Amino acid sequence: MEKPIAKRVHAWIRERPYLVWALKRGFVNFSSLARAAQQELNVKNFDAVIVAARRFGDEATSDGKNIISLLKNSRLEIKTGVNVYILKSSNMERKTDYLHVIKGSNATTVITEEPMDIPCMRKNENMLEVRIISPAEIENNTGFMAYVCSALAERGINIQETYSCYTDTIFIFAKKDMTRVVETLESIGIR
């Protein structure tokens, strides 16, 4: 059974954080938005799509000011030469000062400064790590990751890995993207 049109339109809008941002500020032409959603969702009923879009805009609550404030009070740390290994198992005997291990359902990701000669499913060596260190309020802010990831995606920057620990939000990128990553994060207020 197909979802109701309103739920489909709301999901389509949520997948595009820049639209949510624009809707919350009243910057959106609802007819244009409805036509785009109608075409992508293959919905015939234009009126139902525009009503769903308007309701989404009316229900949007956050204006994003708390995210902007949080970003301005965050700082960047950048580390080059980071290596990422994705293993079939988590047999880690090697000791290193800089080691992050993230265990997923089918793989374990190991991030370290020292190259490792271990059997792995995939490895990306000499990568760029960018750490955003934020105030403790980050724990209670909705939309921080969406905002940062959207800014990076809009500039065509691929995030290889991302993880967090309390106030640290950590991203791994290809080293070639360093200038664009820093420029992007600074443009949204992180210094």
Structural features, described:
The chain is 39% helix and 24% strand. The chain has 191 residues and is an alpha+beta fold. It has two domains: 5-61, no CATH class; 69-187, VC0802-like. Helix 1 packs across helix 4 (46-59) and helix 3 (30-41) crosses helix 4. The chain is elongated, with a radius of gyration of 20 Å. The relative contact order is 0.15. The mean pLDDT is 86.
Number of helices: 7
Q: Examine the coordinates and then state which fold CATH places here, giving the name of the CATH topology of the largest domain.
A: VC0802-like
CATH architecture of the largest domain: 2-Layer Sandwich
- How many strands in all? 6
How far the N terminus sits from the C terminus, by CA atoms, comes to 48 Å
**Major beta sheet summary:** 6 strands, antiparallel
CATH class of the largest domain: Alpha Beta
List the topology elements.
Elements: H1 5-14, H2 17-25, H3 30-41, H4 46-59, H5 65-72, E1 75-87, E2 99-103, E3 108-112, E4 122-133, H6 144-154, E5 161-165, E6 168-173, H7 178-187
Antiparallel strand pairs: 1-3, 1-4, 2-3, 4-6, 5-6
Helix pairs in contact: 1-4, 3-4
